[in-house]
Amino acid sequence: MDSFMDFYFEEVFVKLNRDSLNERYKRRELVEYFNSVITGCAKGQNKSDNTSCKNFVNSALKFHNTCKTKNGDVCLMGKYHNLLYIAMKLAFDWSLQDNGVVAALLDELYACERTFERIFLGAIFGTSAPFFLAGWKSDFMDKEENVHALVFFLDHATNANLEWKDGDRSYRFIDVPLESCGKASPVRVVIQMGASEILMILLRFGARITSDHVSNNPIESILDRLNEYNRKYPYELVTCLKLTMRAMPHLNLTVNKDAYKHLELPEDYNYQRKVALEKYGDILNDHLVLSSRCGLKPVELKHLCRCLIRDRLWQNFELPFGIYKLPIPMSLKKYLDLLDD
Questions:
Q1: Number of domains within the chain
Q2: How high is the pLDDT of residue 262?
Q3: What are the helix and strand counts (H, E) for the chain?
Q4: How far apart are CA 50 and CA 92, in angstroms?
Q5: Cα 18–chain centre separation
Q6: Residue ending a domain, choose from 89, 113, 137
């Protein structure tokens, strides 16, 4: 495989037009070609398909890095960068098990783009929508395959303990901002879309429901949208709200204390309760948010324990699969994994 790939890159790939892999169908043709090469090399060398796929991904990374080094450590983009997406698709197609190789591929993608939107957007919007958002089409066949690919790379990124620095902030794969969505976090985009299926995946893997480049509190955006429906709430939006409330200790509403100065309230006054009742009274009356999660009553100890245990597992890169290593009943494992409430 190594000799073949060296020959291919030196004699064939370098002669391709720089923009020859910009079209999705061209990348797919090359993926099919390399699928045949991997199968042939595996049989000819009496190795597993997984080993042959690993060798291909390593060869692609080596070639990309060599070209980048010769260009002053700046990616040449065009076909040189699209080669990484061909490697990405092959790694998924063959369910590549080598965690280090997949981690190296993700590192290289982030170093060039500072985002993983070409993995996330297809799962969130489908295969065609990213073209209107970012000018490219997903390398995966349909939305279902995009979701499977997202889980595949989430699993590898978690197992490899991957984190990336951007200024003074550190991001994990699941929280890296999406450039084409105004640098919003994936979980915020999913919440705004009302895509509860994808939201469940992100939350199980420990997506942070915190402030980002867009605004302070993604849950408030759900509550504000629900207020617009005059108590005829969309199912998907309600589901998103309930899922996010499983993953957070309680609502943390934005409070402008200056607006209440004229009331001369005590220092320990429960502003969260007041804001919740004033802004979202109908939602509370309709029991879409538990009274124990918005300051009206104390938070349940069981729920606080869930949030604390999940946070410890997240810190150790053990979400969600580390839950099932705990010596506790299956009902509690499902509760910790956000499957039950």
A1: 2
A2: 75
A3: 15, 2
A4: 11
A5: 30
A6: 113
Percent of the chain at pLDDT exceeding 90: 67
The model's pTM:
0.91
Q: Are residues 18 and 105 in the same domain?
A: yes
Residue 176 lies in domain:
114-216
Residue 176, in any domain of the structure: yes
* Partners of 178 in beta bridges: 184
Tokens of 322: 């580390």
When mean pLDDT is compared across 82-96, 221-235, 317-331, the lowest value belongs to 221-235
Reported as half-sphere exposure (CB side, CA atoms, 13 A), residue 61 has a value of: 20
Closest CA to 244 of 279, 296, 290: 290
Q: Which residue has the tokens 């073949």?
A: 4
Q: Do 2 and 107 fall into the same domain?
A: yes
What is the spatial distance between Cα 105 and Cα 52, in angstroms, rounded to a whole number?
A: 16
Give me the phi and psi of 228, to 5 degrees please. Answer: -75, -10
Q: Give the DSSP H or E segment for 40.
A: helix 24-44
- DSSP character for 297? S
At 166, give phi and psi (nearest 5°): -135, 95
CB 241 within 8 A of CB 235: no
